[in-house]
Structure prediction request, 605 residues.
Amino acid sequence: MLDVVAREGLARAGRWDADGEDVRLPAVLHPDTQRSPAPDFAQLTISTDPLGSAATIRYEGTRLTPEADETGEGLSLPRALIYPGGVDESLQKAADELNREEAPIQIVHDPAEVGPVTGLLVLPRAREVADDAWRLAGFLTTARRRAGPNAVIYAPGIGRPDQIALAAYAGVDVFDGLEASLAALSDTYSRVERPEGSAPPEHPACACPACRDADREGWTLDRLREHNRREQRAEVRRVRQAIADGRLRELVEQRVRASPAHLATLRRLDEDHGDLYERYAPTVREDELPVVGRRSLSRPEVTRWLDRLETRYQAPESARTLVALPCSATKPYGNSPTHQRIRPAIKHNARGRAHVVTFTSPLGAVPEELELMYPAHRYEVPVTGDWNEREEQVIRRAFEAIWKNGGYDQAILHVPPDEADIVEEALPRAERTVEPGERPTDDEATDRLGEAVRASVGDDQAIARDDMFAEHMDNRIDWQFGPGVADVLAEDTWIRGKYPWLRLMHGEDQLAMIKPERGALTLTEPGGRRLHEATDAYTIEIDDFRPKGTVFAAGVTGASEAIRPEDEVVCVHEGELRAVGRATAPGEIMADMDAGGCAEVRHRG
Ligand SMILES: [Zn+2]
Prediction:
């Protein structure tokens, strides 16, 4: 059984019960032979039987199944099939067939032939594609997607420290310990920041026991192998921690900078398999999203934002004037000193008819009512005002989507002139209110903005604050749950509280609230009832029980594929609401999972 405690991308951190032994994932599989014994710290080893052709996987130094071939039990696999060498394709295919039937370990050469697997899946061809940027992304992603959530994937040939973060992100759970020994045999000193490694340094900076000994007494093969293994182990631990912290993507972006091939692989993952990664990416995060480099523009949370602007978003009904404001380092924008100096000029002149949209990268544009939503509410990005072509394209598409999905008469660009240049063509009727040489916060500029807003709303009927707040709340609901849900969830409601601590009320019953640190709406039980009435897109079907705390996979019979980790969900049995909570796994794998949590529930129906 596999107990996943954290996920990011296609990577998982957790525990795998491998034939009675507990293995922490991601892990390294170490070959254990007389000439090259596995290290003391190995939690997973593979040991060759010198008398036969079978290699036996064993754990914590105990051989579990020395006669696996006869009994057909335990974890064993034929050595030749893991390291195929010159084995020809028809033999490999035949081996795949033999291994397909309920074997505790499946060996499949072609990822397109992988079926759902429970237990260990070995991908012997991983070695061939390990450094082939064009094939690796598709190879690993396809295997992970087809093998399903219960497969523990072992990729022989992938185990160099620099490869581990990226391959884990693409779904590999178990790495090849042999790589550390092979590097040592070719007199290579492993370095996580250098794919090619280096010659063993005379005075290594590394503080591992082997390096300390080598510093005093010089290098031996054993010392080099030990350092290489420790470098590998350290990276696996870093990856494990990064998955638990939700920081694996940052680690991957950092690692790929060391190698054009890795960078190309990540680009393929983002561009060819972005939809899959989006379905696994959380919709809420309480800490900030660090945007570290150009690859961050393609991370799933960022591409999802633009996608939802284009497919889910509808500008507030009564907004007549779109006012574009510049980005600021402080988020949410409403709290930024820049915006606090500019916004009164809008508020005092708009009579509720203006709609503030912040010009930003990498998200493109952030409408004011979505400022609290992840990742708009918190992301770290240097505000340089220096946009590359791709960023400009995203900004234009975002504004275009907002304009098209609204009933605006006019746009006012209260951004520096070079930013106005970028967005102007996306907005048919745009007026500039910042002159060359001015800053948007200058008095002359904000006065001009106030006049432009006043003129643009003209004689339009004023919109009451409560009505504007209600429109904004509807937009948050539809953004989170899909178009049309607000019609049901917010019907006959009012809003209590001071922004951003807003509560959606029906009479004196609370339906939902915004916690500023989460940004998204959190539902109460009556709120969950309304969500269930409005849509089945956030529904988990469960067996006949009353969930409390964690809803485990064993009790889940089905789930909507629209569910992303951290989404608000309802648990339902045969149409009856049983609980309200948040998802902890992507909806598309919930019904297939053998173990692990699918949701954490707060309210019982
Ligand atoms: Zn060392």
